[in-house]
Specification:
mainly alpha; single chain
Amino acid sequence: MDAAAVSDLMRDAVGLVIKLGGPMLVLSMLVGVVVAIFQAVTQIHEQTIGFILKVSVIVTVLLLGGGWMLESLQEYTREIFALIGS
């Protein structure tokens, strides 16, 4: 395995991490901003509101997209094992 193959493998790994973690990160950030605006307007400064909403959004994303995420990770793992075997 040469340096080009290793760099391609690492590039694909970073792309996969962004593809799998991106939706959860972006949605939890949006929920955080909306909750922060709501708390600023109503002057309710309860920390558990934002936490519970963020956790519920992340769980929902995992339930809806978990199968696709697992398939993507399995495909990448198969590619790595195929490269190890060759």
